[in-house]
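Recap from last week: sequence in, structure out.
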Amino acid sequence: MSVLFAETSVEIANAELIVDKFQQHFAEHFPVIREGTVLHYETEYGKVWMAGEKGRFQAEVNCYDAHVLMSIKAMLAEHLLEFSGDKHLRFRWQGHGADLNQLPNLFEGRVVRAFNVTPNMRRLVISVSEGIERLMTGGLHVRILIVPQGRTPVWPHLSQTGAVVWPEGDDELIRRVYTIRYGNVERQEIELDFVMHEGNHMPGAHFGATAKAGDLVGIIGPGGGVVPVEVDACVFAGDETALPVISRMVEELPAGKKITVYAEVADENERQDIKSEADVNWTWLYRNGKAAGTSGLLEQALRRHDWSEDSDSRHIFIACEKGEVREIKKFLSDEAKLPKNDFRTAGYWVLGEADDH
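Predicted structure tokens:
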């Protein structure tokens, strides 16, 4: 398998500060290594190196998949524009995919049917006319693009910087990240679960609640997350926003793996029946009237967990409200003294902000 390569270099006055901001951002999601002005990290998708000094920012990406390379380049470009504060910063990528201007991982889908899995979890079945095989390899998540009601869709494209150019104004798309809960290549369908959040300005939840057969949706992906089959034991903890990805990983892990799950939901009515060939110890945690993101149930459960078990080959995944994730991450690092390479954390939503997942 050949390695794909891309690099970019741009003059920018505050290059060192840009690297600092990248470090702060990446550290929320996975371990990074900083050596002076150089920052680098490695994930299951590829390697990224960047540096900033003497008024110049440089970045280099290596990976095995053209779609992943495009996604990493776009992510780096978009954050570089954001962190620099210069939306018109001019730079180009050299190497593989340098002349690409159409998103190769953009697909169109249409809603086939919808039904409730639990009172607060609704599942959409979406037909994908082309690319279903691609959507089922390379990651667990997709970004859905919700078209404004009554509008003909205007899909995004790539700029010369590698950043994604999104339609604006009346054509602006609502973008949300979801887990592919199930996929059926023969039927050319994927299934996505939507948490039915309470409150206003929840466009993802609104789409999940109101979508009907025939509705068009854009899909970008896949990306983010893999089933950790290389380890012997896993600890998964999350609220209902993380339940789709936790459930998929549990169901796909094979026999011989040991899994512990702590799943926080509103009440007993939100329980789901999750099947797995692995050895699974699943604990449901009920808020019973407490607001999501305030109960502390996940941190309490993780504090009670015996971390001395299965410490040689272990993967830990935590995902819930961002403030709770930070407290849990601090506990895992500072008190439980777990190696940072053992765990991944993700803040899927922010208390008080209208950002449904």
